[in-house]
Structure formats: structure tokens, C-alpha cells
Amino acid sequence: MTDAAQLRSLVSELLAAQPPATTGPVDFLKARFDAGLAWVHYPVGLGGLDAPRSLQPVVDAELAAAGAPDNDPRRIGIGLGMAAPTILKYGTEEQKRRFLRPLWVGEEVWCQLFSEPGAGSDLAALGTRAVRDGDTWVVDGQKVWTSSAHLARWAILIARTDPELPKHQGISYFICDMTDPGVEVRPLRQITGEAEFNEVFLTGVRIPDTHRLGEVGEGWKVAQTTLMNERVSIGGMRLPREGGMIGPVARAWRERPELRTHDLHQRLLTLWVEAEVARVTGERLRQQLVAGQPGPEGSGMKLAFARLNQEISGLEVELLGQEGLLYSDWTMRRPELVDFTGRDAGYRYLRSKGNSIEGGTSEVLLNIVAERVLGLPAEPRNDKDVAWKDLTR
Q1: Which among 249, 298, 244, 297 is positioned nearest to 275, based on CA atoms?
Q2: Please, are residues 325 and 346 in contact by the beta-carbon 8 Å criterion?
Q3: Most exposed: 151, 159, 190, 294, by fewest CB within 10 Å?
Q4: What's the pLDDT tens digit per position in 180-210?
């Protein structure tokens, strides 16, 4: 299917069969998935129609105009932006049919068990072990900075299955049931006072081999699909003009003329232009995705996202003066999502500090852009051919 008119006709049929005003949100979303209107570029039977990705906005606009419910993508962003494309590429047919529908509908929340206390920027140095025992794998280790682990039903997990091989080898990729015995989730309180992410301890967790994605020992290759999609989902999200962090600052500037100074005006103009350039570049990146999987360009977008959020939130705090030093609530909470624009300036300033760490540190992303986008020589890496068990830790 390549015709927008055909898609509009299918949307009309869905709305007639499942009127949003009288159909429960979950039932409507299930019907939308089954009609192939969830993500139209996915295969038939898996929420799509094998249509071009560029036609998805046609469906979204028609449904939004009809007041249809969405699947609250901010709450299930890890599942939508990271788990789903990885399962689609590497999963078995049984895995795709088991996981994609409840993931998209929002019935099952996902988290990502990648980073560890000793393997953050150098993720391939991870030490969580998975040892095969017949048809299952026994997993022991610790993961950290795990957003939504306190809400998640499932996790995408990478673990070391062969310590005799170099660090980028001997890693395998699994789907972990977060309700299984041996999975312990502990909150990590952030600078905002909240704990939206966690540390996760895995003790004798048994994962069936049927929940492995990709071949044994090829987990690093599978993880690259996850990581590239993660950076696009963080840095390349679709925004209207003055969407995101620049919006509250621009509104404050227009509505509070007493706060204006010449210096702040010049800085706001510069950041407004940079935010708009990033927004348009993100749209171009999404158009490139129509041709296939995301590439390293997403790392550049994520870099820009982190820098702009931090500079814009700093400008907002200065613009508001004493008001910008206030912080509304230090209550320890474990939120379901990150809401940058629905909170106050103090929250935005503090929370944006994490943008240059989460989803790949800015330092690592600079290396990726230098080597894979600009074609510069790679940094010397003396440990690539050394068995993981012999690395200095």
C-alpha cells in the first residue's frame, strides 16, 4: 500500500467500527493494531501494512482529528523506540507475535538492562554473566540507570556468555521477564529529588533460550540496532515549531517584558535558531529512515538535543531571576514518564543535566560522529582483541 487515500479509507473504517467516544482506549488501540494502522511500515499482521514509513503521519493526523486515543508514547518510549525495532529485525516470528502487540498498545512496559556500574560509556566491558543450563540461561549481575524498571514487565538485556572472547564478542541479547524470581529493582534518587530510574540486581534469573534475540555471541551486533534507534528516539523526536525546551522560554520572553535584557535577547535568538535547525534536521533524519534502519546520524541529533536542552534551561533560569531559583517539590517519587515542558524551570534545569549522559554520553557520541559520519581515524583501542577475562578492571 502506497496511497494516502487508501490509508484514510482504512482509518474511516476503523473509526466507524470502533467509535472513540464509545470504545475503551485499550480496545481501540488493539483494533488499530490489528488493522495495520499502528506503525504502517511494519509487516502485515504485526501492526503494519508494509507501507512506506512516510505515510504514518497521514494515519496519525486522521486519528488525532477524530479524537482517538493514543498509546501514551512517552510512557512506553523504550518499548516503542528501542525494543520493537530490535524484535522486528532479530526476533523469531513467535517472538514478534508475542511481544509487539501488547508493547504497542501499552499493556506491557519495557526497560533496558544495558549499562552497569563498571560498563557505562564502555558498554562492551559489561560483566553480567549468562550461563547456559539446558534450554535456559542463568543470569547474575547488576545493571544501573534503568529507566522505568519499577514499571516494566519486560526488559531487553545484554549479558556476557563467553568471557574467553574479546569484549565485543561473547555477548548475547535476551528478553528478561522483570517479574521473575531473582530480579530486584531499587530506586536511584536523582538531582531532581525523584527516582525515574533504578539499579537492577539479577541473582540466578532463569531466562529461556526462546527469549534470546539473535545468535549466541552476537549480542553486540543486535545491541547496535537498539542503540541507534534509542538515539533517534531521544534526539530526533517530532516537534512543532517552538516545541520542546525552547517553548517555555519564548513564552516567558513574550509575556514578561520586564525580564528582558539585551544580552538575554541575543542569547535567546541564537538558541531559538539552533533549536529550529535541530527540529528541521530531525525531520530530515526521519525521512531518511524511510529507506531503512537508522545510522550514526542519530548520534549527532542526540548530541544537539543534550547541549540545547542544557543551554536553553540555563537561559530560562537566568531570565526568570529569583523565580528561576525556586523548585516546587523535592518529594521522592517514582514517576511513569519524564515531563520537561509540564514542570517548572527549576526542574527543567536540573533534569537536563542528565541529557548528556543518558542514551550514550556526549563524549562517546562525539567519537561515533567523528568516525562514522565524518570518516576521521578511529581512536587507538588496545583492548579490542584481548579476552574479556584478561582485561584490567
Answers
A1: 244
A2: yes
A3: 190
A4: 999 999 999 999 999 999 999 999 999 999 9
User: Can you give the C-alpha Rg of the chain in angstroms?
Assistant: 22
CA–CA distance, 253 with 381 (Å, rounded to integer): 48
Backbone angles phi, psi at 68, to 5 degrees: -75, 150
**For helices 56-65 and 4-17, angle between their N-to-C axes, nearest 10 degrees:** 40
Q: Which cell is 324 given?
A: 528561576
In whole angstroms, give the CA distance from residue 80 to residue 119.
25
Q: Are strands 183-188 and 136-147 parallel, antiparallel or unpaired?
A: unpaired
Residues in Cβ contact with 19 at an 8 Å cutoff, skipping those fewer than 6 apart:
none
| Separation CA 184–CA 249 (nearest Å) | 40
Residue 82 has which C-alpha cell? Answer: 528501542
State the pairing for strand pair 154-160/110-113.
Answer: parallel
Which residues share a beta bridge with 112? Answer: 156
Q: Which residues are catalytic?
A: 230
C-alpha cell at 252: 516567558
Assigned C-alpha cell, 135: 534450554
Q: Outline where DSSP puts E strands in the chain.
A: 110-113, 129-133, 136-147, 154-160, 171-177, 183-188, 197-208, 212-213
Identify which of 198, 161, 194, 172 has the alpha carbon closest to the alpha carbon of residue 183: 198
Count of helix runs (H) and strand runs (E) in the chain: 12, 8
Which residues lie across from 110 on neighbouring strands?
Answer: 154
Cβ count within 10 A of residue 51: 23
The DSSP result for 235-247, as a single string, is HS----TT-TTHH
β-bridge pairing 136-147 and 197-208: antiparallel
> Which residue in this structure is represented by grid cell 508493547?
103
Query: Taking Cα atoms as reference points, which of 71, 73, 74, 36 lies closest to residue 55?
Result: 36
Global pTM exceeds 0.85: yes
Residue in the block written with cell 550461563: 131
Q: What is the pLDDT of residues 244-296, one digit of tens each?
A: 899 999 999 999 999 999 999 999 999 999 999 998 888 777 666 655 556 67
Q: Which of 164, 171, 299, 284 is nearest to 227 (CA)?
A: 299
Q: CA-to-CA distance for 174 and 159, rounded, in angstroms?
A: 8
